[in-house]
Write a structure and sequence with these properties.
177 residues, mainly alpha, 80% helix, 0% strand
Amino acid sequence: MTTSEPLFWRFWTAYGGTRALVRSPYLHIALVLVPLTWGTWSAAGWWDTVIGVLPNLLGFTLGGFAIFIAFGDARFIASLAAPEDDPNQPTVYRELCATFVHLILVQVTALGLAIVTKGMWFSATLPAFLESALPVANIVWGGVCYAIFLYALSSVVAIALHVFRISTMYERHQSNK
């Protein structure tokens, strides 16, 4: 890693890239939940759930990230930030930070899509071909947006498990003092 790499690229490689996203069990859980929640997102108003839930979850996530950054003594943080075997691989510290950033980006994306969709929901006289296609487009759009919301929710488990992993590392660190 060089500091001349764009910031987003450094985040994306630390997260694991497209491969990590596609293989994510949390994404798979979200995709399984989409058809099970059909009654929620297939009709107007689904965005109110997203807008009602995500601001609180986003605040909690940002607070958790801030607490993690301040967690542990300087020696422990240095040990997390030290390369293990391959200096080209992200450190444990950067991986966890990337997981937090990923969760924050997914939450902000889901919230933004819900706000924009709510703002675009209005009645208007449309040409017949659009009038007949609009209900299908609304359902597809609602399903995609709700899937992102469900991914944001399921990803909270990923960050919780990652923080738990760090806590076990901290226990080992404390016992080696």
